[in-house]
Amino acid sequence: xxxxxxxxxxxxxxxxxxxxxxxxxxxxxxxxxxxxxxxxxxxxxxxxxxxxxxxxxxxxxxxxxxxxxxxxxxxxxxxxxxxxxxxxxxxxxxxxxxxxxxxxxxxxxxxxxxxxxxxxxxxxxxxxxxxxxxxxxxxxxxxxxxxxxxxxxxxxxxxxxxxxxxxxxxxxxxxxxxxxxxxxxxxxxxxxxxxxxxxxxxxxxxxxxxxxxxxxxxxxxxxxxxxxxxxxxxxxxxxxxxxxxxxxxxxxxxxxxxxxxxxxxxxxxxxxxxxxxxxxxxxxxxxxxxxxxxxxxxxxxxxxxxxxxxxxxxxxxxxxxxxxxxxxxxxxxxxxxxxxxxxxxxxxxxxxxxxxxxxxxxxxxxxxxxxxxxxxxxxxxxxxxxxxxxxxxxxxxxxxxxxxxxxxxxxxxxxxxxxxxxxxxxxxxxxxxxxxxxxxxxxxxxxxxx
Length: 450
Known about the structure:
Blueprint: H1 4-7, H2 13-19, H3 24-27, H4 29-52, H5 54-74, H6 78-106, H7 112-138, H8 145-148, H9 150-164, H10 179-202, H11 207-229, H12 243-273, H13 278-285, H14 287-306, H15 308-328, H16 335-351, H17 354-361, H18 367-401, H19 413-449
């Protein structure tokens, strides 16, 4: 649910903007404020989970997420829904920061690949199923129900967790937090996203955006210096000394960035260019999660035998098929080609074992924070993918038009197709970079074993 809610709003933006009497770009804040809040809080809760207890924090987060979902559904204006989305994100960050750790605690190492693969299937399905599920809901109900649906499911999840999770010991004492490190980290994340989202509006060459880029870089350096001096740092930076872990995070970020191209661009193409209903759009987009839910556990099982890096490396080549289809597709093509492309994307997405790859390369002493860093990488990838997809789409449209455009070109719908091809060409490049990164990891592993 927490990953679905990062993407389900995309397909509802036009209806939300009309009902709340706000501009489309203001409605997009409902998407971005959720992702940014999660990124700000994830590492904090990853650290606190060591002291409060993972299960307890996960359960509290579930209840907060359900409450935030209820308030989102009841919202009737922009300030209320933004505040409710931040409450939702507070709960989501608690569950995201703890779920990997709970799984690695419960399952023996020999079963980590399968267990994390099953978990990965739900995380990835949530990330990519949002627009499809949202389209199906919007075909029969209003946008409020994309939030209301979380409430009964969340309550059931809470009681299942209460029944099945192992009883956690109560931690005595006040939690110790690296306050200077966290404040620097939070300022760094906020500065980075302000640079990205504001840059889309005023241009990335503007002096204000360049100043924010400089501030973000300065905060990164300051954070690294602070963490090296802390006895109990927010993030033990030694975890990044493992190339397999660091490159695993980067490659996962690239894959999630590409996934968000589908979440942002494909609903526009299907609804605005092909003039399909929200319900039909939702059905077509469901090709991704339907295939993903089968390929992820299979990929997890295979990763237990040949290694997560190797199966993920092969999966990246499968990603090339849908990206090429999306670069070439035109409105004259049969819808079957889109379904095939989306199904291939779901297959590759499920086979890409980012969770076992990341957790397998993190030493046992780093397992507690590694899950939070993996979730942070995922949400950073989605947030950057959101900004990249929209920026590249409208930049491509503007290049075709010969002047700056930031809306759908109703008078020239083929310009949108040109912009879509332009954006997906960049997504293809991201996959090629990920192939190179994992190729380096596999080569180093092979040289070590030989």
